[in-house]
Amino acid sequence: INISIINADVQEMPFENDSFDWVVSMFVIPFVEDIKKYLTEAYRVLKENGIFSASIRAPVQNVKNGWNMKQDIANILTKKDILPKHQEEWEDFLNTSKKNAQNVDLRNITDDKIKKTLEDVGFVDVFFYSNVSYGEYAYFLKAKKPNNKDIIIIP
Fold first, then answer.
1. If you ran DSSP here, which 8-state letter would residue 135 be given?
2. Whole-angstrom distance, CA of residue 24 vs CA of residue 22
């Protein structure tokens, strides 16, 4: 596999139009300043029939209420002898996650708003689903950039 890592602003991607078959966004959407601009860029760089996949933290309220999952993760990290050795890093992670979740909540980002924005940009077949590995704490979405045959213009 030929992989390159490029540090760039997702709202101004340094790629040609129609460059990729698949764009993957891992926990990015809640932290992007202009979500429509980002999704427009993702759409622009996708080839026809390309897939946009994204993972998003959810539900935000769980994080704000103490993130019920944190004890489960702490137990796993303790069994693997990572905690308490790295307790300071763990606390930093928890504090950052809670702050980020509060920022997302303040911006009132919802599934419906993300779906509408994806559709406004031109994506079709928008589908949300949860990941069993994360349970109720994370969900994912998939959307397709249609080919010209998929686009129906109604006068």
1. G
2. 6
User: Tell me, what amino acid is at 119?
Assistant: E
pTM, to two decimals: 0.67
Three-state secondary structure of the chain: CCCCCCCCCCCCCCCCCCCEEEEEEECCHHHCCCHHHHHHHHHHHEEEEEEEEEEEECCHHHHHCCCCCHHHHHHHHHHCCCCCCCHHHHHHHHHHHHHHHHHHHHCCCCHHHHHHHHHHHCCEEEEEEECCCCHHHEEEEEEECCCHHHCCCCC
Q: What is the pLDDT of residues 25-83, one digit of tens each?
A: 877 877 788 889 999 999 999 999 999 998 875 554 554 455 556 777 788 888 888 88
Q: Which helix (H) or strand (E) holds 130?
A: strand 124-130
Phi, psi of 128 (to 5 degrees): -100, 145
- Reference 27, options 113, 125, 97; nearest CA is 97
